[in-house]
UniProtKB/TrEMBL annotation:
The keyword Zinc does not apply. Residues 34-60 are annotated as: Disordered. GO terms for molecular function: guanyl-nucleotide exchange factor activity. This is DENN/MADD domain containing 2Da. The lineage of its organism: Eukaryota, Metazoa, Chordata, Craniata, Vertebrata. Keywords: Guanine-nucleotide releasing factor. InterPro entries: cDENN_dom, dDENN_dom, DENN_C, DENN_domain_containing_2, Tripartite_DENN, uDENN_dom. Transmembrane segments: none annotated. Residues 73-466 form the UDENN domain. Pfam families: dDENN, DENN, uDENN. It comes from the Eukaryota. GO terms for cellular component: cytosol; nucleoplasm.
Length: 489
């Protein structure tokens, strides 16, 4: 889930490049540089099966923790402050932990760009704020990608600060290289609890957290923290066993869309089309868009990905290239005048889900495989935990890729030992018996997500067995086919 993109460099200021058009130009320039850098990088290794809880208890300390990784880079508090003329509010960073000292000039400049980006994504609505007496806190996330392709996750919780009378909300934002939404939501609960007592209470807790080792999948780290009047508390932070799903909660996706609607969105995403999600709540947008990207596993969305588009960057909807965008409903009119895209309304009060569509979405996926996905999804009703639900949903869509393109490795040929492999595209799709599946695969292999996947396979050493969940599922499927064939005879 790490390969998700938005752009800290694409942050316009009122002084440069003339507003929205300038923002879009900078966005495009960032993307060109980013795509070049991305192709030169080696993809993170595919996650393999994690040890079960019983095995995890017996592993040594170094296997229970991810070596050298901090929970987070820094925490900032973003407050809404009146502009000089007093006519509106603008977001400003009012607290940062830890302070970044000893940086050279270019590092400071990059840091300032990142901090500017954070304020923009914490308050994407722009300047339209007024003091409030009540505000329901919300948690959401975004991704910052630098020109060199390095990625960082932003986790944000907005709430009304302590005090009396009407006041604007403030945002707490944690920047981390780690993608684990549930874990950081729990951390925010602890931060919020301390903020209600005093801002000074946040520092010792975050210091302890920063010093703590980051747990490996399926493991727990405990943080001791003292709170006046409550005493010392022990906070347990556990990572899910299925680490590639730890940034995802499929429950939100299926509470907003029916199974058939999810299939249509998946069909559009798998062919790398332009898709815009519409909702009022920032948390809904970020959770749904990350869930849709996770459905593509083991493939990775290679194009523009912005879970919450700041109002000042709304012109990105005009980009001709594929994207996954989250847009607040009040900006719907800025989106619906576009064509050749899918606009998905996630709101509770919607009159129809697909506000704009191309019209062929129902015919993209092979009918038999659509039915099989529905059958697996129907078993999720009796799953009680987020982890169980995530496993059922991911299994349904993973099996789709196993059955459509799981035979890929047989069609990567090597001319000599040590040489690079060559994928025999035509032979690959002609080997598929089903006409509807073959038609789908002919289209899917034209996408950048499949192209990058195969490039990485071609670069592997001849004879080296792939590893990871996808390969494991392919072997299981092939064994089952052999077994079924034997039984018939």
């Amino acid at each position: 889930m790490s390969s998700l993109f938005c752009f800290s460099g694409a942050i316009p200021s009122s002084e440069d490049e003339g507003g929205r058009q300038g923002a879009l130009k900078r966005f495009s320039a960032m993307w060109s540089s980013f795509r070049k850098g991305k192709r030169d990088r080696v993809k993170d290794p595919e996650p393999s099966e994690s040890p079960g809880p019983a095995e995890a208890d017996n592993t040594s300390r170094q296997h229970r923790y991810v070596s050298g990784q901090y929970f987070f880079e820094y925490l900032v508090v973003v407050s809404l402050k009146k502009t000089r003329d007093g006519s509106s509010y603008e977001p400003q960073i009012t607290y940062q932990f830890p302070k970044r000292d000893g940086m050279v000039r270019y590092q400071k400049e990059e840091e300032e760009k990142t901090l500017k980006a954070i304020t923009l994504f914490c308050f994407p609505e722009g300047i339209n704020w007024a003091p409030l007496t009540e505000y329901h806190s919300e948690t959401f996330s975004f991704v910052l990608t630098e020109v060199d392709g390095s990625r960082r996750n932003g986790y944000c919780r907005r709430l009304l600060p302590g005090g009396k009378g009407a006041r604007p909300p403030e945002a707490y934002c944690i920047i981390s290289s780690l993608a684990c939404f549930g874990l950081f939501s729990k951390i925010f609960d602890e931060v919020e609890k301390r903020r209600q007592k005093s801002m000074a209470m946040i520092y010792p807790f975050m210091q302890k957290l920063r010093e703590a080792p980051f747990p490996a999948p399926g493991n727990t780290v405990e943080i001791k923290s003292f709170i006046p009047e409550s005493g010392t508390e022990i906070i347990s932070l556990t990572r899910p066993l299925d680490s590639w799903l730890e940034h995802v909660n499929f429950a939100k996706l299926f509470s907003c869309l029916t199974d058939d609607e999810v299939l249509l969105v998946f069909a559009a995403a798998v062919l790398e089309r332009r898709i815009v999600f519409i909702a009022d709540e920032l948390g809904t947008l970020s959770q749904v868009i990350h869930a849709v990207a996770a459905l593509l596993y083991p493939f990775t969305w290679q194009h523009t990905f912005i879970s919450i588009v700041p109002e000042i960057l709304i012109d990105v909807v005009m980009a001709p290239t594929p994207y996954l965008l989250g847009v607040q409903k009040r900006l719907l009119d800025e989106v619906t005048d576009q064509s050749d895209l899918l606009v998905v309304d996630l709101s509770e009060d919607k009159t129809k889900t697909f506000i704009v569509s191309i019209g062929d979405e129902e015919s993209i996926l092979p009918p038999k495989l659509q039915t099989e996905i529905r059958e697996v999804l129907s078993t999720r009703q009796n799953k009680s935990t987020v982890e169980e639900l995530n496993r059922v949903v991911s299994e349904a869509f993973l099996q789709f890729f196993v059955k459509t393109v799981g035979h890929y490795s047989s069609y990567v040929k090597y001319s000599h030992a040590g040489g690079q492999g060559v994928f025999e595209k035509k032979r690959f799709y002609k080997a598929i018996d089903s006409k509807t599946t073959r038609h789908f695969v002919k289209r899917f292999i034209q996408t950048q997500m499949f192209d990058l996947f195969i490039q990485e396979v071609e670069q592997q050493q001849p004879g080296r067995q792939p590893s990871g969940i996808f390969h494991k599922k392919i072997l299981e499927y092939q064994e089952k086919k052999k077994s079924d064939k034997t039984k018939k005879h």
